[in-house]
């Protein structure tokens, strides 16, 4: 095996251990790890991204926000660049939810190219998931509001990856949401 494969397996294993007790919010309670793996796969398979640090950051992108993982821990395990990208895509959970969502819109245009890629793929995965099924406890209005908010974030990420942006644009169009 070449070293990139070894590194990616280390990374996906780390994420799987960290998320091992978590489930997605869909009615089936899909294992959470399906999400970061799917986000990394959108980047490689659909976005044509081969930058291993971006693919690693995609696999790890929710570990700091949703598990006990710290940025220094990621830096020690996977290096400065991967840790920095994850930091860029991590919301400050000390802030109220509406403020976190507002800050995502505000910060999106100022993120690094690598972080923008992860954000685009994360949104694409989540919007497809919302089209697939409504999360437990969500109303149709809440789903629509999520699309409206996501469009504002994606607007600030434009000029990063035309393929992913086109696919997002199509999903917004289907919902009648302006970007
Ligand atoms: Mn995510």
From TrEMBL:
The keyword Cell inner membrane does not apply. GO terms for molecular function: guanosine-3',5'-bis(diphosphate) 3'-diphosphatase activity; metal ion binding. The keyword Nucleotidyltransferase does not apply. Its EC number is 3.1.7.2. Its cofactor is Mn(2+). Residues 32-127 form the HD domain. Keywords: Hydrolase, Manganese, Metal-binding. Belongs to the MESH1 family. ppGpp hydrolyzing enzyme involved in starvation response. This is Guanosine-3',5'-bis(diphosphate) 3'-pyrophosphohydrolase MESH1. It comes from Megalops atlanticus. The lineage of its organism: Eukaryota, Metazoa, Chordata, Craniata, Vertebrata.
């Amino acid at each position: 095996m070449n070293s990139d494969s070894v590194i990616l397996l280390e990374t996906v294993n780390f994420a799987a251990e960290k998320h091992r007790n978590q489930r997605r919010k869909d009615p089936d309670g899909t294992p959470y790890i399906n999400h970061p793996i799917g986000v990394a796969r959108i980047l490689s398979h659909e976005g044509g991204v081969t930058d291993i640090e971006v693919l690693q950051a995609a696999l790890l992108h929710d570990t700091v926000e949703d598990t006990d993982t710290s940025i220094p821990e990621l830096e020690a395990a996977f290096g400065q660049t991967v840790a920095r990208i994850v930091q860029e895509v991590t919301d400050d959970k000390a802030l109220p939810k509406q403020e976190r969502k507002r800050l995502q819109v505000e910060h999106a245009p100022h993120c690094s190219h690598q972080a923008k890629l992860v954000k685009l793929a994360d949104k694409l995965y989540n919007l497809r998931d919302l089209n697939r099924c409504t999360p437990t406890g969500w109303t149709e209005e809440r789903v629509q509001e999520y699309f409206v908010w996501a469009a504002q974030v994606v607007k600030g990420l434009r000029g990063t990856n035309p393929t992913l942006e086109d696919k997002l644009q199509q999903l917004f169009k289907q919902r009648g949401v302006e970007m």
